Amino acid sequence: MALDKKPFLHGDADLGAAIHERVNASPQIRALVAWEDDVLAAAAATLAAVTDLVPAEDRDVDAFSEKLDGVMSRLAVAYAGRPNVAADRRGAINGALAPILADRIANARGSAELAGVWDAAITRDRALPDMDVGQVGRMNRMLHVAMPPGETVAATDWGATLLLPADEREDGPMRERFGLRCAEIMSQVFRVERADRARCTPVLVRTGAVCDAAQRKPGPLPYLLGLLVPVDLVPKADIQKLKSEFESPVLLLDEAAGPVRLLVNARFQISMTSPAASFTPLFRIREQLLAMIAAHAAEYQTRPGVLKLPE
Q1: Which of 162, 170, 45, 24 is nearest to 107 (CA)?
Q2: From start to end of 215-291, where are the E strands?
Q3: Which helix (H) or strand (E) holds 210?
Q4: How does DSSP classify residue 113?
Q5: How many angstroms separate the CA atoms of 281 and 203, rounded?
Q6: What is the tens place of the pLDDT at every residue in 258-288?
Q7: N or C: which end of the chain has fewer CB within 10 A?
Q8: Bridge-partner residues for 293, per DSSP?
Q9: C-alpha to C-alpha distance for 14 and 53, rounded to whole angstroms
Q10: What is the pLDDT of residues 207-222, one digit of tens each?
């Protein structure tokens, strides 16, 4: 999409027109720019909906800001809880408005004049070649994982996936937290052969109720034990996959390390009030995949048991 700068150095050519022409030359770029326009329109409509909550009689220079402050404050308190708004005022408003914005984007109706642009931009949907595992992992990473430093990830964020530090993998801490040594968990729970253990990375995944995370409810934070496993690793054949285990799509988190899957076990949950600095956040699982992990854990942990005699 680069342009030669020489024609524009002395004002001999119209830069704006050249950019417009270059963008329109690619149906795919034009379609994505049109989608961006839809996002901006949805954002404008969301802001208008907020300001519409100010009564008409208060929409004058003197009263409008104060009344709008009241509306925004109520939304912030509703999302984050009164004691937590001051800690992150922007985050409180963002949390309240983001679902409305997402709904408006998802349900926006594209203009008829741009229908042809989308038809020209997406043409290979019926004849796509197969992707290799690395390509699949890259797309899944974009869809399901927020990677630092490009995106903010704190150890206490909902969906934060923390490296289990080496000293916490020692026999004493592991037995205290999980009742098994790290080697036993890898072998008996995640079905990893002894020779493959060094290729796997134990992690903790921050779960719990999203409302507790949003409102910073006091108390210990729940984390599920997980393991990042290379996709080419063959699990032990003599141990059956546990029903408590959730397996993520393929993720390419590190180009050098290669694609992996995240295995999370609903039986192995711990709580920490505040993870130590050594629990490094590796990434944050986005809401769609995290909701599946949380639903899997909740379903497993609340399943009923039935006493059944052999027939």
Answers
A1: 45
A2: 221-230, 245-247, 260-272, 281-285
A3: helix 210-214
A4: G
A5: 9
A6: 999 999 999 999 998 888 889 999 999 999 9
A7: C
A8: none
A9: 44
A10: 987 666 666 666 789 9
